[in-house]
Amino acid sequence: MSVDTFTIPTQQVAKSRVSEVDFENLVFGKTFSDHMFVVDYVDGAWQNAQILPYGNMSMSPATSALHYGQAIFEGMKAYRDENDDILLFRPLDNHKRLNASAQRLCMPELPEELFMQGLEQLLRLDAAWVPSNPGCALYLRPFMFATDAFIGVRPSLTYRFAIITCPVGAYFDKPVKVAVETNYVRSAEGGAGYAKAAGNYAAALLPTQKMHERGFQQLIWTDAREHKYIEESGTMNVMFVIDNVVVTPSLSTSILHGVTRSSVLQVAKDLGYTVEERKVSVDEVIEAYNAGKLQEAFGTGTAAVISQIALIHHNGQDCELPPVETRTISNSIAAELDKIRTGKAVDSHGWVYKISL
Length: 357
Fold this sequence. Notes:
This protein is of the alpha+beta class. It has 2 domains: 18-169, D-amino Acid Aminotransferase, Chain A, domain 1, CATH 3.30.470.10; 176-341, D-amino Acid Aminotransferase, subunit A, domain 2 (D-amino Acid Aminotransferase, Chain A, domain 2). The protein has helices spanning 64-68, 91-104, 112-125, 198-213, 259-270, 282-290, 328-341; strands at 35-42, 45-53, 71-73, 76-80, 86-89, 137-146, 159-168, 176-180, 218-222, 230-233, 236-242, 245-249, 274-278, 294-301, 305-314, 317-320, 352-355. Helix 5 crosses helix 7. The chain is globular. The two termini are 23 Å apart.
């Protein structure tokens, strides 16, 4: 199968809703584009790929995903460049991670050609939904779930993969306050923490809500064994600038393999900054703060890209970080990454996938 040798059957909407959208005031994840890409896995093969008007899906109350949690997803963004073309950032890496998640949850892998063809054809059709406003993008949500109408603990025999899209602005519009979590855990070594599984996010809702009640927007997850080492921050990978060094927890089976994370680390190296991927203890971060060496802290992820952390709370202590405008390293990385994603800087790593209209 090649992206150049087949066209996905398409049912277009009678009238686009794009004229109803206020692109100056986008709320993240609320407004969805006209169409969606859908393909089903039946009898051991992906078949019946189609692009349909965005709408509800009919399913049995016994649908396997609702009972046994076989559901995964990805997060991506499409940007518009100065020539009005659409740019995707590292889509093949998202496809690779989707399949890694599928393997972990005993789901079928999706062929790269089908993923890219569906994505490209969908974006060509809904090109008008890609914002041109600074700081905005078209958020892309590929996802897969089990569809067997069967009650019984076993892998489903059928699945649906789909892609929906929505124009978005900033996910976090200001620096966040976080607290170190020392009771609940997000994942453990040998678990599914490295996969973008829906259940990982469901399990995080209660601890996050409890943090909100305490006045924090997010939390810092620590390891399941000792609550000693930092793993992630909320739904993002987390990084610290300690004595001019960018430090982040090394990847493991309990940490999501973030595409934005790897991009930030590479851009940091390109800009000449020292980067360390290793175990990072809570004590090290607090000691660095007390010694005046903790200069910056931020989360990385597709939705927020770089989300600045204003304060870290741990064991009764509030560690207030310097104002965002003074943060040389993360700001320079964010600016360079934004230029690459939007075609304003040389893409020396082959990250950008262009869709010419």
